[in-house]
Amino acid sequence: MYLIEIKNLHASIDGKPILKGLNLQVRKGEIHAIMGPNGAGKSTLAKILAGHPAYTVTEGEIWFKGQDLLSLQPEERAALGLFMSFQYPLEIAGVTNRHFLKTAFTALRKTKISEADFDTLLAEKMALMEMRAEFGDRSVNEGFSGGEKKRNEILQMALFDPDLAILDETDSGLDIDAMKVVASGVNRLRRPDSSLLVITHYQRLLDYIRPDFVHVLFDGRIQRTGDATLALELEAKGYA
């Protein structure tokens, strides 16, 4: 049984077709990388999986943990175990990182946690991401550098412990040191029964988060699939 199965997915935005018959299957414990040029549909796929309302699915099915994902609201998808790390994380002025994370954590877990227990958990996960304690008291992503925003995204992943994490160009804008920290955090969070869908332009991230499968997405479809060596080929030869 697949953790997630996407069948003949067609989707558009503002009437413009983006995905044109995409098929993908991911089993528990697997890491899949999606690569492709700008406009191929990579981020569209991620946003549709997360439930972004701007995109219209015109045909196809998505099954996640045996449930019809397309019938679920974004918060229901998150509660079921799906997580997405954004390419451009939003800033939320006036809301502390700690308050945001605790609110989301209790909503997803549908259980209460004491302030002391949550602070202990948060401190543990922040240490994992090499984030200073002061970031808990700052407004969400406000004044954060690009690397700090991406670490904050993976901090959410650490707290929520999803079954499927979608990393949408997490390496975008990161220097090599920040990318190593982010990738190290992702690797430490892996479970044998959890999976990753890594969307990236560049092979360099895959040196640190090594995929089981690499897919080339072009013109709204997956055109080719291979192992990690396919990413090296794409880096050397391009998508042509």
Topology:
Layout: E1 4-13, E2 16-26, E3 31-35, H1 42-50, E4 55-64, E5 67-68, H2 74-80, E6 82-85, E7 92-96, H3 97-109, H4 115-128, E8 139-140, H5 146-160, E9 164-168, H6 176-189, E10 195-199, E11 213-218, E12 221-226, H7 229-237
Parallel strand pairs: 3-10, 3-11, 6-9, 9-10
Antiparallel strand pairs: 1-2, 1-4, 4-5, 7-8, 11-12
What does this structure look like?
With 240 residues, the chain is of the alpha/beta class. It has a single domain, classed as 3-Layer(aba) Sandwich (Rossmann fold). It contains 7 helices and 12 strands. The strands form 3 sheets. The protein has a 6-stranded mixed sheet with strand order 6-9-10-3-11-12, sandwiched between helices. The protein has a 4-stranded antiparallel sheet with strand order 2-1-4-5. Helix 5 runs parallel beside helix 6. The radius of gyration is 18 Å and the shape is globular. The model has no long low-confidence stretch (mean pLDDT 92).
